[in-house]
Design brief:
- Strands 1, 6, 7, 8, 9, 10, 13 and 14 form an eight-stranded antiparallel sheet that branches. A four-stranded mixed sheet has the order 2-3-11-12, with no helix packed on it. The protein has a two-stranded antiparallel ribbon with strand order 4-5.
- The protein has one domain (3-184).
- It has strands at residues 3-6, 17-18, 31-34, 45-48, 51-54, 65-68, 71-88, 93-101, 104-113, 126-130, 134-136, 139-141, 147-165, 168-184.
- By secondary structure, the chain is mainly beta.
- The protein contains no helices and 14 strands.
Length: 186
């Protein structure tokens, strides 16, 4: 199976990690993941359930996409599935992702992301990364173990698209996106 890791860095708009001297704000209320518990990777490629993902964490730098109707450009190819590392804050949410080809909507699929501090997934995700505490202001809270969830959306049939429209729900966050398939059009 071929995988295409999407570079989301042009779309990052949320600092989801905190460090000893740099406070993040994943939730909009001052809470965040502990950055030192993210994998420290040279090329930022992180494997979850045998799927490659790009995972980024640096002090004072955005590292995830808070959903705000962004249009994410991808190479126009044939894809079979979309794999997401993400989480919701302030509850578990689902919204519809719209796929476009040459400016025309071709399909919609539901994406559910469980709350980042949920003990178990609400939408059948797998654990991508679990931390041993969360950051709040200048302290670590060890009674909550935030998670980045891995959600897989399998398309009913192969889908050709060149753009993904995210919904407008600022409680949903995507850290990484990997597409399965990626066969070039003939």
């Amino acid at each position: 199976m071929e995988y295409f890791t999407v570079d989301l860095s042009p779309y990052y708009n949320n600092i989801g990690c905190s460090y000893p001297n740099a406070q993040g704000d994943f939730t909009g209320f001052g809470s965040s993941y502990p950055g030192e518990q993210f994998p420290q990777l040279d090329k930022h490629v992180f494997e979850v359930q045998s799927f490659p993902f790009i995972l980024f964490a640096r002090e004072r730098q955005p590292n995830n996409v808070e959903f705000f109707s962004q249009r994410i450009a991808v190479p126009q190819r044939v894809y079979n599935a979309m794999n997401v590392l993400g989480a919701s804050d302030n509850g578990s949410f689902y919204e519809y992702i719209t796929f476009y080809r040459l400016g025309e909507a071709t399909a919609k699929y539901r994406l559910g992301l469980s709350d980042w501090i949920a003990d178990s997934p609400r939408f059948e995700e797998k654990e991508g990364l679990r931390c041993t505490g969360l950051c709040r202001s200048d302290k670590m809270i060890n009674t909550l173990n935030p998670v980045i969830w891995m959600q897989v959306i399998r398309f009913q049939s192969p889908l050709v698209f060149d753009e993904i429209l995210l919904p407008d729900n600022m409680c949903m966050h995507m850290f990484s996106l990997t597409l399965e398939g990626g066969e070039e059009l003939v």
